[in-house]
Amino acid sequence: MKNFVRFLSKYFITRLLISLLVIFIGVSIVFLIPRLVPGANPAEMAIRRLQMSGAYLPAESMEKMKQALLKLYGLEGSLLSQYITFWRELLKGNLGPSFASFPTPVITLISRSLPWTVGLLALTAILSWGVGTILGGIAGYKNRGVWVRVVEIVSNAVRPVPYYILALLLLILFAYVLHWFPTGGAYRIGLTPTLSWNFVKSVVKYGFLPALSLIIVGIGAWFLNMRNLVSNITGEYFVSFARQMGLKDSIILKSYVMRLAMPAQLTGLGLQLGFIFNGTIITEIVFNYPGLGTLIYTAIMQSDYNLVMGTTLFSIVAVALATLIVDLLLPFIDPRIQYVPS
Amino acid sequence: MRAFANTVRKLFKTDLRFRFGLIVLGLLLIFVLLSFFSPYDPRSSYYAPISRPPSLKHIFGTNGRGQDLFWLLTFALKNSLVFGLEVALLSRVIAIIIGVIAGYRGGAIIDSILMLFCDTFVVLPIFPILVFLRLIARGMTFSTLAVVLALFGWPWDARLIRSQVLSLREQKYTLTAVFSGRSIFGLIFSEYLLHILPIILATTINNMLWSLGLEITLSILGLAPLDIPTMGTVTYWAIQQQAMVTGAWWWIFFPIIFIVLLFTSLYLLFTSITSFINPRLRSINAGEVSR
Questions:
Q1: Residue A271 in this model has a pLDDT that exceeds 80
Q2: Of A273, B95, B160, B173, which has the fewest Cβ atoms less than 10 A away?
Q3: Taking CB atoms and an 8 Å limit, are B285 and A163 in contact across chains?
Q4: Out of A14, A33, A224, closest to residue B132 by CB
């Protein structure tokens, strides 16, 4: 019990603090950006957008609209009171309306595209982390065999290439040259999202290429990571001891070596979620997959300032919370974390 | 200085990765130097026939704006490299200051606070934030963008430097120096910096990989000053003008070849140097915990 309390205060509080700090700093940056960049008043940008679309408004109603927009964006009053309003609206889950598809709230657009992103992200992250970790563990322990070399060479070759370029190459090869997979979208146009076999088949076919690009990169990274960790551990005395005891290789690998490398690998997953999330967004843009990434991309194209801001705020909160969840899983894998020495 | 030259020579002889990386990077640098002899101004267009495939006159062909791709790419590679170096140098300053302060004052509250900030910045999803910033500040130049990226690109490296300084602080010569009245700054600049130099070099390369990747991604999304040729903006125009649909393969083929060569050579140099620093740890990967 005493240990548990100490664990809570030492580990849990720090992790919670980091997540809150991520949200706090991220949101503050997003709040400050339009207020620091000259000529980037969101209300004026909204009006300029309206004028660009060809709508003519008399000066009076323009002024009225500006006032309304200033109120809507909480741009009245001192910087501090604006900041407080900003937070209040955010905590209420109110991200304002989208400019391009006015008056649909940003949060509705986000919730519409969120399932696709979460599906793609969760599936590829878990799959590539799991496969990469297991393969890397075996490779680091035995370190011979042709396929180990093959995976190693592929991982090292894929690693430095920018994510966008890799996804682009896959798209060109499999969609434009070989015509194996469609060039974009999440399911065949004309199908209605139901739980029918046809629809699921279509989703798998359309999602395959985006998922593949994420998995290739992911497996490579986790593989190299785990191989390094395991080959370090394999050199330790307790492993030689276990071998001399006559334990089976599979048991040593599973419960001696891999177990010890797990915490570091899981911490890596927690810290990498931000990167992985960035990657998913880029993948969606390349493959025109209807998740948050494509939402951001169309928002860029339409200069939908508010939608980009809303998606950014949402991403910060989501990544911070997901990281917290991974961090809280860690004590179950690594019991040492629970026993903080006094 | 001589020790440095010797190390480079030794790595060049023994490590295939180092040799390959250095040679390719050297060739790319020669390619960059060619930009000073370019017969065309990178900003002018329509001086050559539009979208011709590679020929003797235009080795890499011409693009849809009547520009010679070979000479355009020399400028693009130069601008991208300069951008990467700007980010790397600026973020190095931040990383060294924070790493040394946190490491030297280890155990104090300052260390915990600085590391808390490090962990926070590592987790922050910076891509959407950058997109938002670029959308607001459309007129932002590449130099300003470099400063912004530098403000985000320090945490991993600050952590690495901190752990190095932590172990240096425990060395006996630190105690001797402090007891004989050496100022802390003198100690840090004359002794510690020499020890953390290889790590700084490795992280500089790693940081360039990161910032160049972001430059290319932002440019391809059309969120960079598109009139300045960089590896990203050249690719942007190729995609924008439907290179894949119209069959103008050379618009996209040559930029991507150069991007892949640049990233591969930098990465090989990076892994070679890290395995030289720490042979036990074959490669410190871009974002992971293996300390």
A1: no
A2: B173
A3: no
A4: A33
Residues of B in Cβ contact (< 8 Å) with A36? none
Residues of A in contact with B222 (CB under 8 A): 300
Q: Are A280 and A303 in contact, with CB atoms under 8 Å apart?
A: no
Angle between helices B249-277 and B193-220 (to 10 degrees): 160
Query: Per-residue b/e over A291-304, b at no fewer than 16 CB within 10 Å?
Result: bbbbbbbbbbeebb
Q: Which residue has the tokens 């023994």?
A: B14
- Which DSSP string do the residues of A13-26 spell out, in sequence order? HHHHHHHHHHHHHH
Residue B53: predicted pLDDT:
81
pLDDT-based confidence at B28, cuts 50/70/90? Answer: very high
Q: Could you give the CA distance from residue B282 to residue B151 in angstroms, rounded to a whole number?
A: 29
Task: Identify which of A143, A128, A142, A145 has the alpha carbon closest to the alpha carbon of residue A223.
Answer: A128
Query: Which residue is associated with the tokens 């200033």?
Result: A70
User: Taking CB atoms and an 8 Å limit, are B127 and A303 in contact across chains?
Assistant: no
Per residue in B203-256, pLDDT (tens digit) is 999 999 999 999 998 998 888 888 889 999 998 888 888 777 777 788 888 998
> Are residues A70 and A76 in contact, defined by beta-carbon separation less than 8 angstroms?
yes
In Å, how far from its chain's centre is CA A150? 28
How does residue A1 score in pLDDT terms, banded at 50, 70 and 90? Answer: low
Angle between helices B126-136 and B193-220 (to 10 degrees): 60
Closest by CA position to A207, among listed A265, A287, A99: A287
Which residue's entry shows tokens 């007129």? Answer: B139
Question: What crossing angle do the helices spanning A42-52 and A305-333 adopt, rounded to 10°?
Answer: 130
Are the beta carbons of A218 and A132 closer than 8 angstroms? Answer: yes
Q: How far is the C-alpha of B27 from the C-alpha of B36, rounded, in Å?
A: 15
Q: Which residues of A touch B213 (CB under 8 A)?
A: 162-164
CA distance B152 to chain A (A): 12
Residue B86 has pLDDT above 50, yes or no: yes
Backbone phi, psi, residue A110, to 5°: -65, -45
CA atoms within 13 A on the CB side of A117: 26
Distance CA(A62)–CA(A55), nearest Å, equals 11
- The more confident residue out of B47 and B86 is B86
Model pTM score:
0.83
Burial A190-204 (b: 16+ CB within 10 A, else e): eeeeeeeeeeeebbe
Bridge partners for A105 per DSSP = A97
| Residue A161, amino acid | V
Give B-chain residues touching A267 at CB under 8 angstroms.
289
Distances (CA, A) of B2 to A3, B9, B202: 55, 11, 19
> H/E element holding A287?
helix A259-287
Pairwise CB contact (< 8 Å): B126 & A274: yes
Distance CA B166, CA A173 (A): 49
